[in-house]
Design a protein that fits this description.
By secondary structure, the chain is of the alpha+beta class. It has helices spanning 2-17, 48-52, 54-70; strands at residues 21-24, 29-32, 41-45. Strands 2-1-3 form a 3-stranded antiparallel sheet. The model is unreliable at 1-14 (pLDDT under 50).
């Protein structure tokens, strides 16, 4: 019975992920819901447009973190 409960919990977790967008940095493609290995993707993002901007968002965050470290 515990096995069934674990599966149900995993399924519920994945259903929530399906509502999000991901950027696959290995292929450069945007995915609706996680479709590839977690190590190959960034996200989740609320919109497809945000997921498409993932490389730009990462660069912006890196610049902001670098500026914070300099202070």
């Amino acid at each position: 019975m515990a096995e069934h409960d674990d599966h149900t919990q995993d399924h519920a977790h994945h259903d929530g992920d399906a509502a999000h967008w991901w950027y696959n940095h290995k292929t450069g493609e945007v995915e609706h819901g996680p479709q590839s290995l977690g190590s190959d993707r960034d996200g989740p993002y609320a919109t497809e447009a945000d997921a498409r901007r993932a490389p730009e968002i990462a660069r912006e965050r890196a610049r902001a973190w670098a500026a914070d470290e300099e202070e």
